[in-house]
Structures are given as structure tokens and as C-alpha cells.
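Posted in: Protein Modeling Q&A

I'm a second-year student putting together a small comparison for a lab meeting, and my supervisor asked me to include a predicted structure for Acyl-CoA dehydrogenase family protein. I've never done this before, so apologies if this is the wrong subforum. The sequence is pasted below exactly as I got it from our records. If anyone can share the C-alpha cell output, I'd also love a short note on what stands out.
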Amino acid sequence: MRRTVFNEDHEAFRETLRAFIEAEVVPVYDEWFQAGQAPRDFYYKLGELGIFGINVPEEFGGAGLDTHKFEAVLYEETSRAGVNFGGSGVHVLLALPYIKMLATDEQKKRYLPKFVSGEEMWALAMTEPGTGSDVAGMKTTAKLSEDGTHYVLNGSKTFITGGVHADRVIVCARTSAPGEQDRRFGISLFAVDTKSEGYSIGRKLDKLGLRTSDTAELAFVDVKVPVEDLLGEENKGFYYLGANLPSERWGIAFGAYAQAKAAVRFAQQYVTDRTVFGKPVAHFQNTKFELASCQAEVDAAEAVADRALEALDAGELTAAEAASAKLFCTEVAHRVIDKCLQLHGGYGYMNEYPIARLYADNRVNRIYGGTSEVMKSIIAKSMGL
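Accepted answer (user: helix_wrangler)
Welcome! Here is the predicted structure, written out as C-alpha cells:
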């Protein structure tokens, strides 16, 4: 069936991106994998390519567009090549919406030009060692100084993607105690300069997958954050976070669909080339049936991901719809990638094959951005259950 979600501009971007990946990423990707992160200077290349500025207003050096469709192309092309762009995904998908939604004109002038060029890489720090899905339970605090010029930040965060290379991190912290009737009250967001005294990066975490995407523990000991770096209003951070969750969950859903599509491509190539008992593996009926069922699931996931993309661009994607898309696409990807790895046999378990890396990378999709169980709760609530 013919897709209608992309136009000529998106396809031209796809060609440019595919050529960039082949020239700049594929030849060195094994080095990134062994190092456990993409090199910092790679993000300058993404800035030069215009990746970071697509949705940034022209006055700050961006393209001034208001769409997630170019991000969608990026998901498809990186998955197709069996690579990812390190921690840069959170820079655009997670951090940028908060800057656009909450930053004052003065803040945008300070933040966005460096954001677009890659001079300042951003990350988002919500999760703490004792609080994952329960965001309202965070313990990190930010107390206003007596002279009112800065906040004093204390606490820690973990699982912060992009945390090693980040130059600024949107840190969620308590500026007030939880309300008696609303424990979500009292959280604020700060654009923290990672060069600040008292700010430190702990371990670069050793993950099962997404090994080229740096993920870190962060610690704050009496970090002074100027009041000029408060994003939005005090104590409303939880509601700001909720406003951006649908776009984050769409991103995970679309990325998972793209991974499943890539897995089918890798498996089809492998079984066509691989010979057993004197015949290509693709010759056997089991291979044909397994790949056919995978393709059917990918087709369904593509339709769900595309529909969510159109709703997101129209400003109509609800929390429940985003949760449904994430739940469906991540579960499809889990099943499809597992079957495609099986078709590779023993070679599918080797990290030199992209299907093995894809298998490990995909597993987190059902955890971060809200677990599958949380997605089911959101959907059930929307059903009146």
C-alpha cells in the first residue's frame, strides 16, 4: 500500500541522510560501539547537516518548520543502516520541546543558536535512583537563595541519556514540598550548565543495548543555578512534563516500528545469501512463513506509527493514543526482531551482525518513556475502566 505521510522534501532529506550515514557513520560505527559512545565532534556534523535546527525558528538559526516527519525519516534511516546517532536523539526529541514551550525570548536567544549548531548538547534529567515512573516522588531539591539570584541544587539522577556529553541538562527538582491534595505540585525545571561547580558526572552506565548512546549518573552538590535558567514557572514542572509525554512516546513508537522494519530487511538479506543443505535458507517454507508474518506485523505497526505522526503534527495526539501507539509498536518490534534473529541462527547472536545489536537496542523500548504496564493503565483509564 502507498504511504501518504511523506512528501518530496522528506524523501530528498532521506537521500541526503542515507548518504551521510554511509559516509560518516557506518565506517566508524564499530569504534563507537566499542567505546560505548559517539564522539563529541560527531554532534557538530549533525549541526552542520541541519538535523538539530529543523524545528527551531529561523531567527535562531533553524529551518523554522513545525513537524516531526523529518525525525521520522531519521528513525527509519538509522534503523535501516543498523546504527544510531548516540545521545543526540534526546537533544531534539526530549529537550527541544521544553525550550520552545517554556523558554522566554531572552532564554531562546541564549540557548537556541548553540543548540542548532551542536555547540551545546542538551539532555533531560528526570529519573532518580529511587524514582522511575513515579516522577512525583523525586528527592532532588532546588532552593532559592536568600538574595533571590539563584537556586541551590542538590540531589542525583540516573539513566540520563546523553548525560556524558551534555553541555546543558534540563533538571527536574523540587522547589516546594508536595501539596496535601496534589503530590505532583512543587517540581520545577532548570536548564543547568554542566560546567557549574558542584555538578558531576558519575558512572557512564554499562547498558545491555544502545551502547553508542552515552547514559550517565549525575550528582548535584550545592550547584548554583541562576534564576535566569528556570524554565517556565516554579512548581509546575510535573504538568510541563506531562504535556510533552505524547511526543516522547510517539518517538519511541516510531523508532520501534523502524527497528522492526529494519530487522525484516536484515533477515531477508541473510536468508537469501545463507545456504544450508545445499539451498538458500529463504527456500524453506518455514523461512517464508516467518518472514511473511513479520512483514504483516510491520505493515500494521507502520500504519499505527504513521497515524500517530499525523495526529502529533496536527496537535491532536492524545495521551491515550500515544500510549496505544507505543504499546503496540514496541510489542510488535519485540516479536519481529526476535523472529528475525532466530532466522540468522547462531550468527544472529554475534554483535558483528546488526540484528544482534538491534535485539539489544530494542529491549528498552518497553521500559523507558513509561513501561508497557503504565501504557496499559493509561489506555484503560481512557476507556473508563
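A couple of things worth pointing out for your meeting: The radius of gyration is 21 Å. The chain has a mean pLDDT of 96.
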